[in-house]
Amino acid sequence: MYNHLSGNITQLNPSMAVIDCNGVGYVLSISLNCYTKINGKKNATLLTHLQVSEDAHVLYGFHDEQERRLFRHLLSVSGIGAKTAMAIISSASPDLIMRAIITDNVQQLQTLKGVSEKTAQKIIIELKKKISKEDFPSVAMREKIPSRDEALAALSTLGFPRTVSERAVDTILSSNNGKEIGVEELLKLALKNI
After folding, report:
1. CATH 3.90.550: does it fit domain 145-193?
2. Domain-by-domain residue ranges, the chain?
3. What is the rounded CA–CA span in Å between residue 54 and residue 57?
4. For 9-19, what is each residue's pLDDT tens digit?
5. The CATH number of domain 66-132 is 1.10.3720.10
């Protein structure tokens, strides 16, 4: 029904934004990722998803299409509702979540809020065939970065858990916008983030 809303941000907290569109204030439930990207801005354009239930109509807001697409994929998993899906995408970047699904990383998914081992397995089983690397190009691109695997191997040798190492390395690669980064530099930055 609504694809996006553009306007002034009149209220903002880590889970909710109010966007004023020509005098009408729309309340949107947002993820922590979205909050981080729009915090401090006066205006924003948020993509939307309207969730209709028996007792409420809730409008969800997303900073980009990748986040909204992941949210919708999570809603298609049996047993995951909108609140749980929003908690999941608030716990990590869409790239990190999609990579965990594509690589069958149950342990990584279990670190997300509201995800048990059984739920993690269900997410992988139900979404792995639905999603593709074409839907999430940054995940596919990251798999081609050779320094990532070398940095993860080095961090593993130093005794850091794989999930912690992946989160730190992927955060750095995301902020580097896909540009090549050397293993030594990647390791230095990752150690600062762990």
Report:
1. no
2. 4-62, 66-132, 145-193
3. 8
4. 999 999 999 99
5. no
Question: Which residues, 6+ apart, have CB-to-CB distance to 99 below 8 Å?
Answer: 105, 108, 139, 142, 143, 166, 170
Kindly indicate the confidence band of residue 182, based on its pLDDT and cuts at 50, 70 and 90: confident
DSSP string over 25-68: EEEEEE-HHHHHHHTT-SEEEEEEEEEE-SS-EEEEEESSHHHH
Can you say whether the dihedral through the CA atoms of 83, 4, 19, 69 is positive or negative?
A: positive
Cβ atoms within 10 Å of 52's Cβ, excluding its own: 8
Helix-strand-coil percent breakdown of the chain, rounded to 5?
Answer: 50, 20, 30
Residue 110 and residue 146: Cα distance in Å, rounded?
26
Q: Tell me: the pLDDT tens digits for 109-156?
A: 988 888 999 999 999 999 988 876 555 555 554 555 667 778 888 888
Residues found in the chain: 194
Radius of gyration of the chain (CA): 18
